[in-house]
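Reproducibility note. Readers wishing to regenerate the assembly model reported in the main text can use the exact inputs given here. Chain order matters: entities are listed in the order in which they were concatenated for prediction.
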Amino acid sequence: MSLVDRGRGLESIEWRRASRRAPAWAIVVLLASALGVAALLSLVVFDARHGWETPHWSERRFDSITVSSTRWREPGERWVVAVFPQCPHCRASLRDVALVRARMTRPPRLAALIVDTEHRPQAAVVAEAGVDAVFWDRDQVWRRRWGHRAYGEILCFDSTGRYVRTRTASEIAAEVPDE
Amino acid sequence: MHAVVEGVRPESRELPRLLPGWGAVLWVAAVVGLWWLAMDTAMGEVYRRHELDVPAAAVRVGVVAGVAGKLLGNLAETAFYASWWALKGPRLPFAIVWSWLISLSLLDTFGVVAAGFASDLDGIVRGVVGAVCNGRLLLPAEVSESHALAFAMSGICLLAVARVIATAWVLARAAGRPFLGSLALTGGAWLATRGLLVLVALLLRGPGAAMWGAAS
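Running the prediction on these inputs yields the following structure tokens for the assembly.
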């Protein structure tokens, strides 16, 4: 047996002896840490395998609160911002997107989708935002069918309602230069 | 060898107390107070930048929750390291190690404040602050603050490396063990927490391409 192997052997003995003498609290803390990590990994795997629907824009799935602009009905790309009325960040996101859209040469249609709201909202909750339409996600499609959770995110659909991607206001603002 | 098996470590006395008695309590209180100031400043900066109209009471609740979370996080970090070493033999002086780790957290606090003020900057200043204080600033502007990549990068910077090294030194002194082994532990824990943070961000965001800004 080489000296290195002997050293490793001694280290192993040292570890085993020390482990046997380790206080219960240390074992509990380390086990709790390992369990916490395992629980988080399980959640991630469960979430990935859940089989969420790919979003698809269809007005039949949502309640129309208001369609203030005829442009919404015209063919073209549609951006739908998930808005929780009590979330200031959502309203800021909506406002930022509306400002960016105003600078675009081919602006998309823009709607607010009111999510996680039990009672039918008033159009006034996003009145200042300058959107073409407001919809209410009464059946919680956004959260329970699509599995989305980030308020203020922008779901981009093509003119047929096919999901293209999800973006954030800052991503879009970075692509459209200021005047 | 004998000392390790018996769990007696005269070397643990090598980690000095930061301050004796009530001085240490006051010092910890001062550090927590600095956390409070830093979080209040950083949150105010975020609200100002996004022009968010958030009630003052909600901001206060957010700061209290942030400080409490940080305190618990520091206790959990110390408990993890103390447990790890206890399993290997050495018993760390918990309160002393905790007071050191809580003091080292000032590096993070400084980074949060500096990064908050540098968020609106461009060019080389932003790059330097990003490299030193918060790697998120090195990402392109189109990567939002809530992006998983931004979560991951926010803790990658020179200050974080300094904190990992300093933590390893504290633990090595407290455990009376070689520095490099301690560095492997703290470095591994740091990398693992980075990875877990990304997973948490992914879970919070839910499925969808926004995470990495790619089309699906």
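We highlight two features of this model. Residues 3-48 of chain A form one domain. Chain A touches chain B through 48 residues (CB under 8 Å).
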